[in-house]
Write a structure and sequence with these properties.
The complex is a heterodimer of chains A (181) and B (455). Chain A has 181 residues and is an alpha+beta fold. In chain A, strand 5 and strand 6 form a beta hairpin. Chain A has two domains: 33 residues; 140 residues, 3-layer Sandwich (Rieske Iron-sulfur Protein), CATH 2.102.10. Chain B has 455 residues and is mainly α. The radius of gyration of chain B is 25 Å and the shape is globular. The chains are: A alpha+beta (181), B mainly alpha (455). FE2/S2 (inorganic) cluster binds next to loops of chain A.
């Protein structure tokens, strides 16, 4: 008798779990899909970036909806640095979310609001308020790139870091963000 | 209901009885509202006043939803429209804004009053803990509310809030993206949902556990309170602020109930540690206090340790709140104007808190001379004086009400709001004079006990 009671109780408990388990997928509802699984999106061609110091602003991930595409969190910049390297950064300053611009002569991104300065090699803050922020909140998030050798097309394939917040820049070299395919 | 009602009055009475009998089947009548016949000091029912403010917020907020647009491009414009174009919009918005400030203020006052009078004891632990949770939700509600305007100040708050969430250990990285969604365009909608539905619903559920069965509702005081919100709104209308623009430098500080946290953040130390340290410390302190302070004593003089703890926590709050407001304009750049040197900051708040603690502790443990409660001298007006006073108050009410109308139609909504508030306050006074007079008239034939009004 005692055993049967136990078995029944066990089945009830297991049944509850089984019934609830599929609801756990409801977790996905809370996240925007395209920010979780970032698409592979063409952003430029190498022809547009022939000179060192040239740059292209781009929207990523792009939806075609003007309101969404103009969101600061989707504004990025692709840069050909003085050392002829490709780098792509989020344009949201990790201080208070203004939009820094690129200054080719200085090889730096400078924020219009409180003057944070980021270097073009890796987006790490070197001047201004951002300097007082602790690791990892003192660097711009970067975009992972793929360059198609045959056509020269540049694709964005992912983001390293948290937009408007920072990037664990000691964990990954900026060169590892660019793949040639 | 045996015989048929004869007069209209009988009909009304039987209808009332019918409804009350049916209401007995609902949970509603298990609450007893006491409407005092005499003036009561509001300290004891600060909680009721907080609830009244919550209701004012619910009503004004619901109507603001008619015009507000939770859209990243339209939010600021729609608030501007409410303020400048919508008839009565200015009043509605300021009512909502000032009531939100008042609610935070009342909740804090309520907390400390209950704390110093040891009300978390004697089986009140559940009431106490739900109260603390309600306090936290009140601040979150106010926070999500002023973010909806999407001005510079709101963006500062959103930035700090999401940054703190990201920096939270373990859960942070998965919770923060829920707030932000795909960007600001999502964030504003999500904050809107939190502000108008999710948080208030949780608060209502908690209130069901928090509100005691016996409630005192001193209507004259409530009228003065609501009138006070109107007066404050008319005198200090809230500024809309500049629309968020990611290329404009601006020096802003958050709302006053968040400047304490802001002061910590401005030191530039590790984000979660600095931004969440103080609130966490306070929450933990208040949550565990009923389980630590086990003595049977209630009065603050008999619990010097906890009284001193309470006083030093107030000192800490006031000090950091004020520091959060302080901007050193002598510095050249906006950033340096806001920067707070961590060693100075943490040093001085530690010193001040400890000092406050020990001074209060010493002061309280000194045996105080036994105090005999001095019976309050009842303030008695003669019947004639009462009548004159009532008439004067009524005349003033007529005057302020007329002014309220006149200024409203002259499109001076702030002056109108002020006068509406004055009229409400005067009405509270009138009601008080009325009950004062009525109870004296009623007292003459026989001694009547305080009637308990079932609502
Ligand atoms: S927002 Fe960029 S420096 Fe402040």
């Amino acid at each position: 008798m005692e055993n049967r009671r136990k078995a029944l109780k066990f089945i009830l408990a297991a049944g509850t779990l089984v019934a609830i388990a599929p609801l756990a997928t409801g977790r996905d509802f809370f996240y925007r899909k395209e920010t979780q699984e970032l698409p592979r999106q063409k952003i430029a061609n190498l022809k547009e970036l022939s000179e060192p110091g040239s740059y292209v602003n781009f929207v990523y991930p792009k939806t075609g909806d003007q309101k969404i595409d103009s969101d600061p969190f989707r504004q990025f910049i692709l840069i050909k640095t003085k050392d002829n390297k490709l780098r792509a950064f989020s344009r949201v300053c990790v201080h208070l979310w203004c939009l820094p611009s690129y200054f080719p002569q200085r090889g730096e991104l400078i924020c219009p609001c409180h003057g944070s300065v980021y270097r073009e090699e890796d987006g790490v803050g070197i001047e201004g308020p951002v300097l007082y922020q602790t690791y990892p909140t003192n660097a711009l998030p970067m975009v992972e790139l793929e360059v198609e050798e045959s056509t020269g097309d540049v694709y964005a394939v992912g983001i390293d870091g948290i937009l408007g917040y920072g990037r664990n820049w000691r964990d990954r070299t900026p060169d590892s963000m660019v793949k040639r395919v | 209901m045996s015989d048929r009602p004869k007069t209209l009055r009988d009909l009304g009475e039987s209808l009332y009885k019918w409804v009350v009998d049916r209401l007995e089947r609902t949970p509603f009548l298990s609450f007893k509202f006491t409407i005092p016949q005499q003036y009561l000091s509001p300290y004891g029912y600060l909680g009721t006043l907080t609830t009244v403010t919550f209701i004012v917020l619910g009503i004004s907020g619901a109507f603001l939803m008619f015009y507000y647009r939770p859209d990243v491009e339209l939010a600021w414009l729609s608030v501007k429209e409410i303020e400048e174009e919508v008839p009565f919009g200015f009043i509605m918005r300021n009512l909502h804004y000032h009531a939100s400030n008042l609610m935070v203020l009342l909740a804090v006052a309520h907390l400390y009053y209950q704390y110093f009078s040891g009300r978390y004891k004697i089986k009140n632990e559940v009431l106490w803990v739900t109260g603390i949770l309600l306090g936290i939700l009140t601040v979150l509600e106010a926070y999500t509310g002023y973010d909806l305007i999407l001005n510079q100040r709101a963006l500062l708050a959103i930035n700090i809030g999401t940054g703190l969430t990201f920096a939270a250990p373990v859960i942070g990285p998965s919770v923060a993206p829920i707030l932000i969604g795909g960007g600001l365009f999502d964030l504003i909608v999500r904050f809107y949902a939190l502000h108008v539905f999710i948080i208030p619903m949780i608060m209502l559920v908690l209130m069901a556990f928090h509100i005691p069965r016996f409630l005192v509702l001193d209507i004259p005081i409530v009228l003065v309170l609501v009138g006070g919100i109107f007066v404050a709104g008319g005198m200090f209308p809230v500024h809309l602020g500049l629309r968020f623009d990611p290329s404009l430098p601006e020096i802003t500080v958050p709302e006053w109930y968040l400047t304490a946290i802001y002061a910590f953040i401005r030191t530039g130390t590790e984000r979660f540690f600095s931004g969440a340290l103080l609130p966490l410390l306070f929450t933990i302190m208040f949550l565990i206090i009923p389980f630590v302070d086990k003595s049977r004593k209630l009065g603050w003089r008999d619990r010097p340790f906890f009284t001193a703890l309470g006083i030093s926590s107030i000192i800490l709050i006031i000090f950091t709140t004020l520091w959060g407001f302080y901007v050193d304009f002598s510095q050249p750049t906006p950033f340096e104007q806001l920067y707070i040197e961590p060693t100075i900051f943490y040093g001085s708040i530690t010193a001040l808190t400890l000092l406050g603690f020990f001074i209060t502790y010493r002061f309280i443990t000194k045996p105080s001379p036994p105090r005999r409660p001095t019976p309050a001298k009842p303030f008695v007006l003669s019947s004639k004086g009462l009548l004159v006073a009532t008439t004067v108050v009524f005349a003033l009410m007529v005057l302020t009400t007329l002014l309220a109308f006149q200024t409203y139609f002259a499109n001076m909504q702030n002056v109108s709001m002020f006068n509406m508030g004055m009229s409400l306050i005067l009405f509270g006074l009138l009601l008080h004079l009325y009950r004062h007079g009525i109870s004296r008239v009623a007292k003459q034939p026989s001694t009547t006990q305080q009637p308990e009004v079932k609502a």
